[in-house]
């Protein structure tokens, strides 16, 4: 499962619901400009704010991430790649 196939996660839906209730308007699942296959979870178009909702497991949260015991090496490599992508996406200058 990749970031692309995990759209509309429970966390994303919960955040959107709160924003919407607060009267905020936004777009969801917007491609990152000039970064193919990367998607911004929530965008406030006018303010030019991009929000990424990184799940604890898939994005290696320092507080809550867990390490699968089976295929441990494969998982470590996979999750390290995810985290490297997150850094790259966060560092991406513009839209
Ligand atoms: Zn966490």
Question: What's the quick description here?
Answer:
With 95 residues, the protein is of the alpha+beta class. The chain has helices at residues 10-21, 72-91, and strands at 27-31, 39-44, 49-51.
Description:
By secondary structure, the protein is α+β, with helices and mostly antiparallel strands. It has one domain (4-91): Endonuclease, Chain A, CATH 3.40.960. It is built from two helices and three strands, in the order αβββα. The chain has helices at 10-21, 72-91, and strands spanning 27-31, 39-44, 49-51. Strands 1-2-3 form a three-stranded antiparallel beta sheet, with no helix packed on it. It is globular, with a radius of gyration of 15 Å. The structure holds zinc ion (ZN). Zinc ion (ZN) is lined by residues 56, 61, 63-64. Zinc ion (ZN) binds at residues 56, 61, 63-64.
CATH homologous superfamily descriptor: VSR Endonuclease
Q: Major sheet, described briefly?
A: 3 strands, antiparallel
Strand content: 5-15%
| Total tally of structural domains | 1
Mass-distribution shape: globular
CATH class: Alpha Beta
The count of DSSP E runs of length 2 or more, i.e. the number of strands, is 3
- Reported CATH architecture: 3-Layer(aba) Sandwich
Average predicted local confidence, pLDDT? 90
Radius of gyration from CA coordinates: 15 Å
User: What molecules are bound to this protein?
Assistant: zinc ion
The SS-based structural class is: alpha+beta
The oligomeric status of these chains comes to single chain
Strand arrangement in the largest pleated sheet: 1-2-3
**Low-confidence regions:** 1-5
Number of H- or I-type helical stretches? 2
Helical residues, percent: 25-40%
Order of helices and strands: HEEEH
């Amino acid at each position: 499962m990749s970031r692309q196939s995990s759209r509309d996660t429970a966390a994303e839906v919960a955040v959107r619901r709160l924003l919407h209730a607060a009267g905020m308007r936004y777009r969801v699942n917007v491609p990152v400009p000039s970064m193919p296959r990367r998607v911004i979870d929530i965008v406030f178009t006018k303010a030019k704010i991009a929000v990424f909702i990184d799940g604890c497991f898939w994005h290696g949260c320092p507080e809550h991430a867990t390490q699968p015991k089976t295929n441990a090496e494969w998982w470590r490599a996979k999750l390290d790649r995810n985290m490297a992508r997150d850094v790259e996406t966060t560092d991406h200058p513009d839209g």
